[in-house]
Amino acid sequence: MSRTLAITASLNTDEGLWIYRGSQFIKRLFEGDLTHTILKHHPGVPNMWLTGSGMLANCWLNNFFSGFLGVDLSPDIGTCLNLEQFPINLYIIPRLVQAVVTSACMVCIYLFIRRLLGQAIAFCTIIILLLEPFFLAYQRFITTDALQADFAILAVLLFLLYLQKDGKRKFVLASGIFLGLATAAKITALFLLPAIAIIIGLIELGVWQEAFPSRGWKQQLRGFQLWLATILVTFILIFPAMWVSPGYVLDRIRDGVLQESDRGFLFFLGQLTHSPGILFYPLVLVYRLSPILQVGLVATSLVLLIPKLRCRQKNTPAIAAIALIAVWVILILSASDNKIDRYINLCLPMLAILAAAGWLEIMAGVTVWLNKLSLSREKIREWGCLMIFALQLVLLFPYHPHYLTYYNPLFGGAVAAQNIFMIGQGEGLEQAAQWLNQSLNVKEIKVASWYSRYFSSYFHGQVLPIDKRIPSGIQPWTRANRVVFYKNQLQRQLPEPKMLAYFAKQQPLYTVRLQNIDYAWVYPGPLALAEDVKRIQFPLSLSFGEQVRLLGYDLNKTKISTNDELIVTFYWQFLAPPPADVSIKISLRDRQNHISNFSSTPLIDGYVFPENITAGTTIRDVHKLKISPTTSPQHYQLQVEGFSFNKGQVIGEVEVVK
């Protein structure tokens, strides 16, 4: 249920990429182009099988029930799978397919934990995991993180079952299959290999003998080799590109991993950085985990570190082994320069198991304390699990369906987190799109947006990209009627501070606010709409030569203080392309006809090429005039000069006050 409620709400920024890759994956399978079924270094193969199959189902449904999806798709399957943009309705079936698979994984996780650690820990783990906000958020997304995490924990549990006294070879084979699937989802699942090798070494050195008996180095090595072989065979079998071009695939994965490790453009502790430091993942655990999970982890840590408590825990060896793997993964992640909070999904199920064990220890302590009430241990566990469920549900509910907006409220929530982490992975942009969809003639409106692929799934008009890097030539956003900015874009000052500063001095038309912080802003773009012209604060009709007419202007203030900034927004109607060296000069003239303040800046701060402006275009052009501290308080005439018309024209009046 939690994976399918509000199924069209809040896409993740990577989902558009994976539904595209999945569609291309299936299309290339049909075409026999197996070599190019690798589309990314992750490599995300299980995701592409699932999302591609979901998209194929969309195409078939459209052929059998035209109009059922509310999307105009080609009846030709190859053309249908070759889409570049995916309306939100096309995500429903791929997300449902993912929900079925991840839900089945949750059932298997419960069954394997019950066999390894007992029913109480298994039940408590599932309660925590199903309602853990950050984990649930990614379980809903058709990205690589969910399947990697689910398959990896299944592999770990099965391998620990194999290491037990009566462990059978089928467990190591099943573990290898699941880790092969996890690796095919995301190559970083291989981080588990050294941790498993360390556990085997500790067992053979005599540690945890009561749960994991020594089998001798040769037998352990044979089991480990069988496991590695199963991982490799599974990886090859599920990945068509490996059938024909294994060398090409491995080169793509290596090159991609190296390139991603130098990602850059990150934000941490209020600063731009290319490499968040060693504090990153500890702070992620503080802010991204729920208090329930954190309390359980603290309790388990005390049990493992205090000998007296450790002796009471019958599952200490298995719990210690899981803790070792989780700590190892976090250490490896911390060693990389490329740090993103979602990478901890790989060890979140392990942390949930540890937290469940901790809560059972807390319940055991409560049992001793309440012994005089004659309550049975089983009864206290039932009430304890019910309490955990209720607390997790109460904590989760305010974040539905934007679970990624969760940051631990005990540490200031999102308001505090925005000064530490990059905020936002797409959530909130759909609300900006829905607001814009209410506009008249929305299909004719051009909107430039951060995460444009995501935005286009919701917006009914035309979408232009705002990319991390400034493209050469004309900037796409200069041709937009509206411009949408996003929280992490502003945190990282992308694509460049100058462009953001141009809009920062303006008032947004609409702001998306989630969990008490602003996530997205909609600004009027350089190309004015008819409704913008109708709302001009001071309408005019002044000619500036034969090429340009000033339709009017807006002021942020008509009464302004010294040392303040006057923001003037002009609406220029072009009758012909203006000269390339256009500069707009604005000034204040006092009663004695003296200029006291002056500024000269290019059209749209130099981002447009005036000679490319077509006749009939109305440009919304924003300029800033700094009022000098020495300016005398009085009424001033606002004068503008520009284009080939060299004489300044008075367009209004501004009052300067102290």
In short:
One of its GO terms (biological process) is lipopolysaccharide biosynthetic process. One of its GO terms (molecular function) is pentosyltransferase activity. This protein is an alpha+beta fold and 658 residues long.
Plain-language structure description:
The chain contains 24 helices and 16 strands. By secondary structure, the protein is α+β, with helices and mostly antiparallel strands. It folds into three domains: 385 residues, no CATH class; 96 residues, no CATH class; 126 residues, Immunoglobulin-like (Sandwich). Strand 8 and strand 9 form a beta hairpin. The radius of gyration is 30 Å and the shape is elongated. Pfam families: PMT_2. It comes from Fischerella thermalis CCMEE 5268. Its main location: membrane.
Largest sheet: 5 strands, mixed
CA-CA gap between termini:
61 Å
**Gross geometry:** elongated
Number of domains: 3
How much is the radius of gyration in Å?
30 Å
Low-pLDDT sequence parts: none
Task: Please provide the count of β strands.
Answer: 16
Structural class: alpha+beta
DSSP helical segment count? 24
Instruction: State the helical fraction.
Output: 40-55%
Give the strand content.
15-25%
- Major β-sheet strand ordering: 4-3-5-7-6
Q: Averaging pLDDT over every residue, what do you get?
A: 92
Transmembrane segments: 92-113, 120-141, 147-164, 171-203, 223-244, 265-283, 289-306, 318-336, 348-371, 383-400
Protein name: Glycosyltransferase RgtA/B/C/D-like domain-containing protein
GO molecular function: pentosyltransferase activity
Subcellular location: Cell membrane
